[in-house]
Design brief:
The chain is α+β, with helices and mostly antiparallel strands and 228 residues long. The chain contains six helices and nine strands; from the N terminus they run E-H-E-E-E-E-H-E-E-H-H-E-H-H-E.
Length: 228
């Protein structure tokens, strides 16, 4: 018989697992890893409402994508265009970024799998006599290691020609030059920290769902068990 067991700790672990997976996925897909040096506005960049020049813009560069401003000569205006600069894996700007593009997706894939499985932990608490929380916590720890490897290797690629074109000639491995870090990089770091927190917290979720109070509710014949 299936018992639906919901506790504060197990529900919090589930929500954190889902948030972490989405945060890492969005960060990886974003082009806002590096914010390039400001590009000065040209004489064509005129605000039609005020008649003044627009502020300089900052192009952004991601692991495989970028955002830059393109001109529309016919309408005398400029728009920001975002998209991948690499059509395939081999065109990613740096070998270190290629390694990052391997390790981060591996970690994200594991996190997404755990996030999907975590939704069903209310009904299924064990697999082959193994606690599903402990198994998921172990997988989250492994995912965290993949994420750390990807984040450590990423700055080593700042000396590639693509990064130099955005960050200036002083950019090199682990040196930003004229660039600054974008929100995607910080989100990836925050998500990695939360990944390890989830891995540790999974043990608390397992304890909460196998506590004496839960066993007492099961013995009383209840199928829906909600505990603080």
């Amino acid at each position: 018989m299936c018992h639906v067991i919901v506790t504060c700790r197990s529900m919090l672990w589930t929500l954190l697992s889902i948030v972490v997976a989405f945060a890492e996925l969005i960060a990886f897909m974003s082009a806002d890893w590096l914010i390039g040096k400001a590009k000065p506005s040209s004489s064509e960049d005129v605000d039609n409402r005020t008649g003044g020049s627009q502020e300089p813009y900052h192009p952004t560069l991601g692991i495989y994508g970028r955002c830059t401003r393109i001109s529309h000569m016919q309408f005398s205006r400029r728009d920001t265009l975002c998209g991948p600069y690499a059509e395939n894996f081999n065109e990613i700007a740096s070998g270190f970024w290629q390694a990052t593009a391997i390790f981060l997706p591996m970690g994200i894939m594991i996190l997404c799998t755990v996030a999907f499985v975590s939704v069903f932990t209310m009904c299924v608490q064990s697999i082959m006599k193994k606690s599903i929380f402990n198994v998921c916590g172990l997988l989250q720890g492994i995912a965290g290691l993949f994420l750390i490897l990807g984040l450590i290797l990423y700055p080593a690629g700042w000396g590639c020609q693509k990064a130099i074109s955005y960050c200036g000639p002083y950019a090199s491995a682990y040196k930003l030059g004229d660039c600054s870090l974008g929100w995607a990089f910080y989100t990836a770091i925050g998500g990695t920290v939360l990944t390890f927190i989830c891995a540790v917290f999974s043990a608390q979720a397992e304890i909460a769902t196998s506590s004496d109070k839960v066993q007492e509710e099961i013995e009383e014949g209840k199928n829906l068990i909600c505990l603080l």
